[in-house]
């Protein structure tokens, strides 16, 4: 109770110090309608760690400043399917209002005032909903719990969708694996992959902030035993860090924390991009969103062997 009260006091102090930005945040909230701007020839998928509502963030790193820029980046990307991480209640309320033409699924990781989540949004003009749900990434997924050696409560949200154009089903899972628990990352991947199997042999996407850091380690190798890294499934690809930390830590980052994994059949990846948007020196988050375009069907060729690396005994995970 004391910790919750302290965090609430910090929150309101932060609101007062950021009052001018807060007025703009409430008054000039941008929005867009995905049904009006979606790509008609491909499915666009975006993954984005928003950086949770952190009371320590001030100035240009504060959510009140970053929020409209985050929406602006999403509007340019025009995702039919959007997965996010670290989304708090304050942020979800804002994003629900800004992102029109979507339905969404969400579960908060714990009962704290600033608990995070891994919500999924989908374009209701392009997909019918078959099933939705969320669970904790743990040995007891139906109740709030930490899994294995995890430091934090971790959740996964999922959608089973049917493409309106032809009825093809698609399973989409979005998670944020633990930053410290090596076994939690390995078992989390296995758990989610096994959950996908209950929906049969349909195209699948696993996205999220996986905290694999550099496309290496046992958890990354485990993911490749079930999926392909979408980055290596198309010649029209991109490379580089997805966590940059600019504005929080001055680093020359090489950390690749954010991923799209796709089923080994049924998903034809056309393009992979890292969205490095910056607006007058202000970044929407401390992670770059990633984007892929795809169609449902067999891909002609793939180069996913480039994503396979030798597992390392220790994975250098340092961020959330």
Give the structure's gist in a few sentences.
The protein has helices at 2-17, 19-27, 34-37, 63-77, 89-98, 182-197, 218-226; strands at residues 32-33, 43-49, 81-85, 99-100, 102-105, 120-123, 127-136, 155-163, 169-176, 204-209, 227-229, 258-263, 267-274, 290-296.
Keywords:
320 residues, alpha+beta, Deoxyribonuclease I, Chain A, six-stranded mixed β-sheet, 14 strands, disordered C terminus
Set down the secondary structure blueprint.
Blueprint: H1 2-17, H2 19-27, E1 32-33, H3 34-37, E2 43-49, H4 63-77, E3 81-85, H5 89-98, E4 99-100, E5 102-105, E6 120-123, E7 127-136, E8 155-163, E9 169-176, H6 182-197, E10 204-209, H7 218-226, E11 227-229, E12 258-263, E13 267-274, E14 290-296
Parallel strand pairs: 1-4, 2-3, 9-10
Antiparallel strand pairs: 2-14, 3-6, 5-6, 7-8, 8-9, 10-12, 11-12, 13-14
Helix pairs in contact: 2-4, 6-7
Please write the string of helix (H) and strand (E) elements: HHEHEHEHEEEEEEHEHEEEE
Q: Compute the average pLDDT.
A: 90
Helix content: 10-25%
Q: Going by CATH, what is the homologous superfamily?
A: Endonuclease/exonuclease/phosphatase
Portion in strands: 25-35%
Structural domain tally: 1
Global structural class: alpha+beta
CATH class: Alpha Beta
Write the CATH architecture name.
4-Layer Sandwich
Total number of β-strand segments?
A: 14
Task: Give an overview of the whole structure.
The protein is α+β, with helices and mostly antiparallel strands and 320 residues long. The protein has a single domain, classed as Deoxyribonuclease I, Chain A (4-Layer Sandwich). Helices cover 25% and strands 25% of the residues. The protein has 7 helices and 14 strands. It has helices at residues 2-17, 19-27, 34-37, 63-77, 89-98, 182-197, 218-226, and strands at residues 32-33, 43-49, 81-85, 99-100, 102-105, 120-123, 127-136, 155-163, 169-176, 204-209, 227-229, 258-263, 267-274, 290-296. The strands form 3 sheets. Strands 5-6-3-2-14-13 form a 6-stranded mixed beta sheet, with no helix packed on it. A 6-stranded mixed beta sheet has the order 7-8-9-10-12-11. Strand 8 (155-163) and strand 9 (169-176) form a beta hairpin. Helix 2 (19-27) runs parallel beside helix 4 and helix 6 (182-197) packs parallel to helix 7 (218-226).
């Amino acid at each position: 109770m004391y910790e919750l009260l302290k965090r609430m006091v910090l929150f309101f102090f932060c609101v007062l110090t950021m009052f001018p930005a807060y007025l703009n945040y409430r008054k000039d909230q941008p929005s867009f309608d995905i049904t009006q701007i979606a790509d008609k020839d491909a499915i666009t998928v975006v993954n984005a760690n928003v950086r949770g509502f952190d009371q320590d963030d001030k100035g240009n790193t504060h959510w009140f400043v970053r929020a409209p820029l985050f929406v602006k980046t999403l509007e340019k990307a025009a995702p039919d399917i959007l997965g996010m991480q670290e989304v708090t209640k304050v942020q979800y309320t804002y994003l629900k209002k800004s992102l029109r033409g979507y339905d969404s699924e969400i579960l908060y990781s714990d009962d704290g005032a600033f608990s995070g989540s891994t919500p999924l949004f989908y374009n209701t003009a392009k997909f019918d909903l078959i099933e939705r749900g969320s669970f904790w990434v743990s040995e007891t997924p139906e109740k709030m719990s930490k899994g294995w050696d995890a430091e934090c409560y971790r959740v996964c949200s999922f959608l089973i969708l049917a493409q309106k154009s032809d009825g093809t089903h698609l399973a989409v899972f979005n998670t944020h694996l633990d930053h410290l628990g090596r076994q939690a990352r390995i078992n989390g991947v296995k758990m989610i992959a096994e959950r996908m199997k209950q929906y049969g042999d349909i195209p699948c996407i696993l996205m999220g902030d996986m905290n694999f850091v550099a496309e290496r380690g046992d958890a990354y190798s485990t993911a490749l035993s079930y999926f392909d890294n979408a980055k290596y499934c198309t010649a029209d690809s991109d490379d580089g860090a997805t966590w940059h930390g600019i504005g929080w830590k001055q680093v020359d980052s090489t950390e690749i924390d954010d991923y799209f994994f796709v089923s080994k059949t049924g998903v034809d990846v056309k393009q992979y991009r890292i969205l490095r948007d910056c607006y007058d020196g202000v970044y929407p988050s401390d992670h770059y969103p990633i984007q892929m375009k795809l169609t449902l069907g067999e891909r002609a060729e793939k180069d996913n062997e480039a994503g396979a690396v030798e597992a390392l005994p220790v994975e250098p995970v340092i961020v959330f």
